[in-house]
Recover the amino acids of this structure.
């Protein structure tokens, strides 16, 4: 390993933890070790969540030619506004002190349990993400499988919320959510399979380590810079957007049609929990995308390795989140039939082809010289040609759109 | 370790029993899912990481959705209003016969199977080993299972497909 791996900044968080742990008696050390990790993850990603909301509001505002929240400052200093950066804390106080309304006919227990489950499971996914060199809360052999297993339970919570509210809109939204999440689980997992195939492991830590090489010092060997990796990354992004219920796939909570869907009957703290879980889910999926495709905590160039690995991770994560906000500000919402058609007729076949593509990549690993060019060309062709053909045939006859009743 | 097992067993059996006792079908379905999660917890307790995660992913994540969909699409009212017939001798007899037959078959199967004593220490199996084993030795079985599932999926699609006439405003 390069000298960067044991620079002071790199080791600081871990050494701080070990230093704190050693004050405790021997039998408690194990517990304290894990508790500190949990608290650190909660604190960092809790703050990250708060600032994601303000970043989202501000960026969306700029995309729509508005200013966004810019008034809240610090309560004890007059005139200091900090560009409205303290807005999320004001929002937090507001939602926490709001009245909690439970509909009279609602299923009280499920209505209460749904937000708890959704937050618990979306937080559980953070356990296997490597945030930096040697910084991973739990090292699991089957980490990827764990991630998707923990993520699967959030769908159940959305259903519980929709059904227990005893509200038409909520139930419709719950059904939509189920259809959508089932549809997109498949391309999401299939887009990750090539990584497992090439890296030969399900452990997130090992996957990051396989991407930690550079060609002549500045061309990183991240998986996104291979034909199958790029295709997988794009499929992953689309599926991740759908899985985290974000625009253009925010059908379950479409404000204009379903009045916020499964959230209609939630208020106050419970609503805040759902909101939080949504952002946690988005952050976790973005972090997984960074880990699998964008080299995780690896620096893009060798000479940039002096910046600690966890900062690189956060930088990439912020990049992904900003991209998602940008997408939200740009694209229109899909209709439910378009949504399922996109998943089943386009993304799933492409993802399956991409798995074959990765298998070819593994089998041709020993090709050298001019054969290397052939390898890249074949890998590109395998994914681009079906993309063009399928895209053309699926949209054939649908454009230009004719309006029978309008105009 | 034993306390953990007892807790898991209580969760598993308790939620399964509650699922049968509830009149509300959605509650039953959710409790059934809880008992599946209990099975996953048991696998984790036994050290079978891979099977536990697969259990959660497949049962809690996917099959639960199918169950809930089925319940929601077939039931008009959430609370089942089965006519409570007066208990007849005939019904009791059929119930007991079915129970005895099932118990007989199950216990015969359990008694006839030979359990080789396990090693004192659990063998260290990684996910990679499981995968290699599946693909090498049990490759054919895996393929056959895949083909059967695909056929079932195609059959379901054909059964569900209807030739509805496409209205022009339905086009994307």
């Amino acid at each position: 390993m390069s000298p960067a791996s044991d620079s002071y900044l790199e080791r600081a968080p871990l050494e701080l933890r070990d230093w704190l742990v050693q004050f405790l008696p021997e039998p408690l050390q194990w517990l304290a070790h894990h508790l500190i990790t949990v608290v650190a993850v909660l604190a960092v990603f809790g703050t990250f969540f708060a600032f994601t909301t303000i970043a989202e509001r501000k960026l969306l505002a700029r995309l729509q030619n508005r200013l966004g929240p810019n008034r809240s400052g610090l309560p004890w200093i007059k005139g200091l506004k900090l560009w409205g950066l303290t807005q999320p804390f004001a929002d937090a106080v507001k939602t926490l002190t709001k009245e909690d309304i439970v509909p009279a006919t609602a299923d009280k227990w499920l209505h209460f349990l749904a937000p708890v489950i959704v937050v618990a499971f979306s937080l559980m996914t953070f356990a296997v993400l490597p945030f930096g060199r040697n910084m991973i809360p739990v090292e699991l052999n089957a980490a990827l499988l764990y991630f998707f297993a923990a993520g699967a339970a959030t769908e159940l919570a959305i259903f519980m919320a929709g059904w227990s509210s005893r509200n038409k809109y909520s139930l419709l939204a719950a059904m939509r959510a189920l259809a959508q999440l089932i549809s997109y689980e498949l391309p999401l997992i299939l887009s990750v399979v090539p990584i497992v195939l090439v890296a030969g492991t399900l452990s997130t830590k090992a996957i990051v380590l396989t991407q930690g090489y550079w060609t002549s010092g500045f061309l990183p060997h991240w998986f996104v810079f291979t034909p199958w990796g790029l295709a997988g990354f794009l499929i992953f992004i689309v599926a991740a957007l759908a899985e985290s219920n974000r625009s253009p796939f925010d059908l379950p909570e479409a404000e204009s049609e379903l009045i916020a869907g499964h959230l209609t009957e939630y208020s106050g703290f419970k609503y805040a929990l759902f909101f939080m879980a949504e952002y946690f889910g988005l952050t976790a999926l973005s972090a997984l995308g960074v880990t699998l495709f964008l080299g995780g905590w690896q620096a893009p160039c060798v000479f940039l390795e002096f910046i600690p690995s966890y900062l690189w991770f956060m930088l990439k994560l912020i990049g992904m989140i900003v991209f998602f906000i940008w997408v939200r500000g740009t694209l229109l919402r899909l209709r439910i039939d378009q949504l399922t058609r996109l998943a089943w007729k386009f993304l799933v076949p492409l993802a399956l082809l991409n798995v074959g593509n990765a298998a070819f990549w593994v089998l041709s690993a020993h090709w050298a010289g001019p054969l290397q060019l052939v390898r890249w060309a074949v890998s590109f062709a395998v994914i681009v040609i079906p993309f063009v053909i399928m895209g053309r045939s699926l949209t054939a006859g649908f454009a230009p759109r004719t309006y029978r009743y309008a105009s | 370790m034993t306390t953990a097992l007892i807790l898991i067993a209580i969760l598993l059996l308790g939620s399964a029993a509650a699922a049968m006792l509830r009149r509300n079908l959605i509650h039953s379905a959710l409790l059934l899912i809880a008992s599946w999660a209990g099975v996953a917890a048991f696998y984790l307790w036994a050290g079978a990481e891979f099977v536990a995660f697969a259990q959660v992913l497949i049962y809690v994540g996917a099959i639960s959705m199918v169950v809930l969909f089925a319940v929601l699409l077939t039931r008009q009212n959430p609370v089942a209003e089965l006519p409570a017939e007066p208990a007849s001798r005939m019904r009791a007899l059929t119930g007991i016969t079915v129970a005895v037959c099932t118990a007989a078959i199950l216990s015969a199967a359990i008694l006839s199977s030979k359990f080789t004593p396990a090693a004192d220490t659990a063998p260290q199996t990684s996910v990679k080993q499981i995968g290699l084993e599946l693909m090498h030795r049990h490759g054919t079985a895996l393929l056959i299972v895949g083909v059967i599932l695909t056929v079932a999926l195609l059959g379901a699609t054909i059964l569900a497909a209807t030739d509805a006439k496409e209205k022009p405003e339905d086009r994307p």
Q: What stands out?
A: Chain A has one domain: 103-393. The mean pLDDT of chain A is 83.
